[in-house]
Amino acid sequence: MMHKMLGSIGIALVMLGVDASELPLPDGMPVFEAEIMTTFATFDARQAVAVDADAFYAVNNFRVTRHDKRSGEPQLQWDGVSDETGPLIHLDSGMVHEGRLYAAHSNYPLWPMSSSIEIWDTATMAHVASHSFGIQLGSMTWIDRHEGYWWGGFGNYDKVQDGQDHPYGETRFSQVVKMDDAFRILEQWSLPAALYPRLTPMSNSGGSWGADGYLYLTGHDYPEIYVMRPPVTGGTLEWVATVHVPGLNGQGIAWDRTIAEPVLWGILKSRSEVYRIHMPKIDLPPKSQTGLIHQPADFAK
């Protein structure tokens, strides 16, 4: 098991001009190492990648290209023509479920923020459905399926967009949500405050549930993946570990659930490359219950 414990000295990560050395991790935070096994050249991997048994799907703001999973050969493409005229202007992370590609979409960087889920038939790459959230919570950045529920992330940003005079929602208001089959929000969680310095001025860009029961999140810039789990109590996710992936810089990710090996797919936006990544085993103590049970003689007063 490749991991190390880092305290307040943090970890220096320099990749593509991004330096995280001045951003220490929380004391005692386990840091694991991942390895990129395969790199595929694409022309659309600017936002995310999704994957199924036979293909991967490179996603940019307004196009999705299906590629052969083994050779990387592009096979079929859905083209939204323009991120200026629409209909889709800012696709983000996606995942494949039962022959359908689901992708988060928003009107980023327009204000007020609105979001939707866009759906394609993976066999034909025809766009087949859309679910609108309207104006609420922020810009949807990712969607995933886990234990019979839909999950997603709504990003907010400290960045002030061109022509605007206030932060685009503020990063601290980013949230993770759990939804039913009709995409009705059932629960929602904030991100830990300790994570904000690694996300600002952008937000949580990608999210995918591992078979190990952890939720893996990415930011927008650093070669890191943040391992999270829902809390026993309260409304803030627990940040339990960090995975260092040299060559990654955040953006959309997707676990390969069609194989037994721990393989995650990601992208390098600056080069439109898709990565097949071997992930480490995250071996951490289980969640502990909170609070104490007292007998009458020991009641706190």
Summary of the model, kept short:
This protein is an all-beta fold and 301 residues long. Helix content is 1%, strand content 44%. It has one domain: Lipocalin (Beta Barrel), CATH 2.40.128.
Question: Can you walk me through this structure?
Answer:
With 301 residues, this protein is mainly β. It has a single domain (31-298), classed as Beta Barrel (Lipocalin), CATH 2.40.128. The protein has one helix at 196-199; strands at residues 3-6, 14-15, 18-19, 29-33, 35-41, 48-51, 55-59, 63-68, 74-79, 91-97, 100-106, 115-121, 127-134, 139-146, 149-155, 175-179, 185-190, 206-209, 215-218, 224-229, 238-244, 254-255, 263-268, 273-278. Strands 1-4-21-20-19-18 form a six-stranded mixed sheet, with no helix packed on it. A four-stranded antiparallel sheet has the order 5-24-23-22, with no helix packed on it. The radius of gyration is 19 Å and the shape is globular. 42% of the residues are buried.
* Topology order in helix (H) and strand (E) letters: EEEEEEEEEEEEEEEEEHEEEEEEE
Strand elements, count:
24
The first-level CATH class is given as: Mainly Beta
Task: Output the radius of gyration.
Answer: 19 Å
Question: Strand arrangement, largest sheet?
Answer: 1-4-21-20-19-18
Average pLDDT across residues? 92
Percent helix range: under 10%
CATH topology: Lipocalin
Class derived from helix and strand content: mainly beta
Biggest beta sheet summary: 6 strands, mixed
Q: Low-confidence parts lasting 5 or more residues at pLDDT below 50?
A: 1-18
Shape: globular
Proper CATH architecture: Beta Barrel
- Count of helical stretches: 1
